[in-house]
Design the sequence.
């Protein structure tokens, strides 16, 4: 499913127009991205948690040349599914 299909499903399930659903979905996603980028944790009970995690610097291997390379520390977005989300997927 892509964003357009998600917007269509939200509009259909909620009984609102696609234009309003687009605004709602886009606003939600933008808010999540901005908050996680600031280092804030977003926890939606029953769905999951969005957060920023720190990756330490490490040594890797270039697959073409087999040479060792240094990978710098970085910040990455992470999502951990909630209990009811996991249970629904596992049924």
Sequence:
């Amino acid at each position: 499913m892509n964003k357009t299909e998600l917007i269509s499903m939200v509009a259909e399930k909620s009984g609102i127009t696609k234009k309003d659903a687009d605004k709602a979905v886009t606003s939600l996603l933008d808010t999540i991205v901005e908050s996680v980028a600031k280092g804030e944790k977003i926890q939606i009970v029953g769905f999951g948690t969005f957060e920023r995690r720190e990756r330490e610097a490490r040594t890797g291997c270039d697959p073409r040349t087999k040479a060792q390379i240094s990978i710098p520390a970085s910040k990455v977005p992470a999502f951990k599914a909630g209990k009811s989300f996991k249970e629904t997927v596992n049924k």
The mean pLDDT is 95. The longest helix spans residues 18-37.
